[in-house]
Amino acid sequence: MDWISGIIDYVPANIGQLRQLTGNHLLQSVLPIVFGVLIAVPLAQLARQNRTLAGIMLTGSSLLYTIPSLAMFVFLPLVLGTSILSMVNVVVALTIYAVALLMRSTVDALTSIDDGVRQAAVAMGYTPLRRFLTVDLPLSIPVLIAGVRVISVTNISMVSVGALIGVPSLGRLFTDGLTRNYPVQIAVGIIITLLLALLLDLLLVLLERVLTPWARSSTTRRTRAAALDARTVAS
Amino acid sequence: MTSTEQASTTRPMIEFRDVTKTYDGGQPAVDSLTMDIERGKITVFVGPSGCGKTTSLRMINRMVEPTSGRILLDGQDVAEQKAAELRRSMGYVMQSSGLMPHRTVLDNIATVPRLNGVARSTARARAKELLDVVGLAPELGRRYPGQLSGGQQQRVGVARALAADPPVLLMDEPFSAVDPVVRAELQSELIRLQRDLAKTIVFVTHDIDEATILGDRVAVFAVGGRLAQFADPEEILRAPVDDFVAGFVGRDRGFRHLSFQEGEDVTIHPIETIETGRLADPSVTVNSPWTLLVDAEGRPHGWVPEATRESVTSQADAVPGGSLYTRGDSLRRALDASLSSPSGLGVTVDDDGRVVGVVRAAEVFELIEAGRLDRGRANYNTAV
Ligand SMILES: Nc1ncnc2c1ncn2[C@@H]1O[C@H](COP(=O)(O)OP(=O)(O)O)[C@@H](O)[C@H]1O
Ligand SMILES: [Mg+2]
To answer: Is B170:B90 a contact under the CB 8 Å cutoff?
Structure first.
């Protein structure tokens, strides 16, 4: 009961700060996803066209992923010339991870497309670019989003690490709570982080549903289709 | 000027001139092919798998580039035309319909006009008309391909190929994946379409029956990408030019149909079984002329004849069984199973190999006869 009342007291009293930290946190986790997709998709397409390139990129991305995030947050300001407290560092670092993670799943996504469909697109007279944008890309959405969902959860938790070096995010509730020995604050941080992760995941699921109307109920109506087929044959 | 105009209407639509295709260092897939494909006719490429039919077809629209030789479309070398534009000037239908799963049926049909820059509304209106042309109900236009049956998908594939009203249609085994009844229907409709629209159709199949039903001219390809004979279907059947063509044309005619005929209607009868573990016990008797020996999982291991029950004390003494018929497989399999079984009863198993019963040769024959009658009627309708 103490916990709950503690949290109930804490939230309204600090609502301004919480709102700001949550906003910062979202920004730092969502932007890298967007940039990650924008970078990984063309790279993956390049990788699919060139075997050596594919090898280099896939190995490279695995290596990148092994760099600890804290090291990246500290190191990037030196390269980018940004302030160590800047959110840009976190966004860039997480974008790098996102690209590293998305590379493989995007290559898989593009490879998952039925070869018959691709051949048909060629036979219809698509130019390569148009085919990529209007056939390959839309069809790879389900596998692509599966990859993005993994990153979105990872990002939400990794953004908190930035708080260790002072970049504002929900992680600050952990660092503050720890130094002030104030567990309620930490609990609030955990709860909001969890909610954010859930919310983002839900949005991605919805996004997939909206973007892939064809994937729904594709088998349920088949029986009716067969019935109609029988009718056309009979007539 | 008049003479050239005349030339363009009488000259073949497609001319292969000494065309050879060799994929990376291997044997030629197509070997020095020279042939003329007549305007407004159905020309069928037929032959066993791997003899270069698809390769030949795809060189026409440059999905495959020849290693040497030239292909002329309406007198013009296809190599000099832009690949994407060339392809849009020909309809293409393939075996798995190759429809875009993320586009509705109407938008699939509208693909090529859209690529050609036709406005969406115009392209869709035309697509609606085509649904009717290929015998599909208008309400199917809003569906996605995944919501259609195989036969319907092939019809949509044909409609898509017709959408830009191309003079040439390339069709690669378009009806091979649908069941025989629907296939016969699609074949006769293709003949009707061809009569109405007078397209130049190049049609690939491995089925000599389909080739002779559809083709105005039939090109029989032999292994190694060699054109063995190119003639009217009657001539191919009556006067095969060599042993290869004779063999290909004659190979189990009629019987081959059975491989495609589904055995769903065949009656599966119950059969008395005895478990291997109980054989050694002489008090366990059998009560029918043939009892099936099964293991604990219900998998068959031969037959125990009633007359010699006493002498069968282990699996090794049982009479070996024939081939197995997996429930739902083709009639040919059902026939094989019943004819190869010492009891005349074809052992029928489920997908896990467990015995579900037996089929009788006489009943399988009856179904085959019924199928033959149906086919005769379909061919009669086609001919009328
Ligand atoms: N893309 C390819 N790369 C290498 N070999 C191929 C390719 N396509 C076909 N072949 C080979 O060429 C031969 C002819 O193939 P294909 O034209 O598909 O025959 P068909 O359509 O008559 O079955 C086969 O031996 C096949 O293995
Ligand atoms: Mg083929």
So the answer is: yes
pLDDT given at position A130: 93
Distance from CA of A26 to the nearest CA of B (A): 32
CB-based pocket (< 6 A), ligand 1: B 23, 29, 47, 49-55
Domain ranges, residue A199? 2-234
Expressed in angstroms and rounded, the spacing between residue B47 Cα and the centre of ligand 1 is 13
| DSSP character string of B190-214 | HHHHHHHH--EEEEEES-HHHHHHH
What pLDDT is stored for residue B252 in this prediction?
47
> Which pLDDT score, from 0 to 100, does residue B97 have?
73
* Topology of the domain comprising B273-366: CBS-domain (3.10.580)
The whole-number average pLDDT for the span A184-195 is 94
Which one of B16, B49, B55 would you pick to mutate in the ligand 1 pocket, going by the greatest count of ligand atoms within 8 A of its CB? B55
Residue from the list A123, A218, A222 with its beta carbon closest to the beta carbon of B63: A123
| Count of domains observed in chain A | 1
Q: How many C-beta atoms surround the C-beta of residue A98 within 10 A?
A: 28
Judge if pTM exceeds 0.95: no
**Cβ separation B101–A214 shorter than 8 A:** yes
Complex ipTM: 0.77
B105, A146 in Cβ contact below 8 A? no
Extract the tokens encoding B193: 């379409």
Q: Which residues contact A82 (CB under 8 A, 6 or more apart)?
A: A76, A88, A89
pLDDT for A83 beyond 50:
yes
Residues of chain B with pLDDT under 50: 1-6, 252, 256, 379-384
Whose CA is closest to A11, among A119, A197, A173, A152? A173
Tell me whether residue A230 is exposed, middle or buried, using C-beta atoms within 10 angstroms of its C-beta: 0 to 12, 13 to 18, 19 or more: middle
Lowest-confidence region among A34-48, A219-233, B155-169, B208-222: A219-233
pLDDT above 60 for A227: no
- Looking at residue A218, its pLDDT comes to 52
Given a contact cutoff of 8 angstroms between Cβ atoms, the answer to whether B123 and B114 are in contact is yes
- Kindly report the average pLDDT of chain B as a whole number: 87
Nearest atom in ligand 1 to B57's CA: 17
Residues contacting B11, CB < 8 A, separation 6+: B74, B75
Domain boundaries defined on chain B: 12-251, 273-366
**How far separated are the first and last CA of chain A, in Å rounded?**
73
* Tokens at B238, concatenated: 């009556």
Higher pLDDT, A1 or B79: B79
Which residue from B72, B65, B141 is spatially nearest to B109, judged by alpha carbons? B141
The DSSP secondary-structure symbol of A113 reads S
| Chain B residue with minimum CA distance to A126 | B84
Task: Say if CB A193 and CB A161 are below 8 A apart.
Answer: no
Domain B12-251 top-level CATH class = alpha beta
Alpha carbon of B182 to ligand 2 centroid (Å): 21
Compute the half-sphere exposure of residue A65: CA atoms within 13 Å on the CB side of its CA: 17
DSSP line for B21-87:
EE-TTSSEEEEEEEEEE-TTSEEEEE-STTSSHHHHHHHHTTSS--SEEEEEETTEEGGGS-HHHHH
Closest atom of ligand 1 relative to the B45 alpha carbon = 22
